[in-house]
Design a protein that fits this description.
Keywords: Signal. This is Ice-binding protein C-terminal domain-containing protein. It comes from Colwellia psychrerythraea (strain 34H / ATCC BAA-681) (Vibrio psychroerythus). By secondary structure, the chain is α+β, with helices and mostly antiparallel strands. The chain has one domain: Sandwich (Jelly Rolls). Helix content is about 25%, strand content about 35%. It contains five helices and eleven strands, in the order αβαβββββαβαββββα. Strands 1, 2, 4, 7 and 11 form a five-stranded antiparallel β-sheet that branches. The two termini are about 15 Å apart. The relative contact order is 0.27.
Length: about 230
Amino acid sequence: MKPSNLLNLFSPLLISLMFLSPTANAGLITSDLGNATSGLVDGNSYALIPDILTAQAGQPAPFDAGIGSELFGDPANVNWLFNYGAITDTILSASFSFGIWDHDSAASGSQLDAFSLGSIDTTVALDAMFESGGGATDAQYSVYTFNLGATFFADLADGNFSVDLDIGGAGLQTALMGGQVSETATNGYHLIYSSLNIVTEDSGPGPIPVPEPSTLLLFVLSLAGLKARIK
């Protein structure tokens, strides 16, 4: 074959290799409940209840109203369910988060009676988060995030992931006059949102193999040398 014909043969191949890119071999499932874009900032205090009610307006229960009260009794147990369809691919990782206002964990004792994600009791883990700084002042907004390891994957795979939250204990109340904070016998709070993110291994076609940059460079140099010899 003539050298010129070799160049004509390999040039389209080189151009194709340069523009090929691998496809992502992973999938992301995201499910949000409540107002995930409320604008409330983790760690900030929001003393005006209208700000919280605005963030909850039009949301589904239990993200639509206050739960319990510092004046009239402990909140009832609440739960919510993520429904996103069964997962057939391999789960690689997952995370869960929720935003809560005014749960008052700075008050004495524990403000958490029980908490579970799927079938797994995670009360101890969330209680440690509560007591280490979340809800450190009255009317504080806090976001809590869990990285869900392999022990949660079976619960995640069926496409329905439940959350169960039971808050109680003492609360905090800020006086209208003077702003003095006092402890109350009961507690109340508002849930703003909750999110679930699951990363899976895509069972579809794998990535398109692409040569390493060094391989492409050698190929280009070889063509350049071949072109120089035929001049």
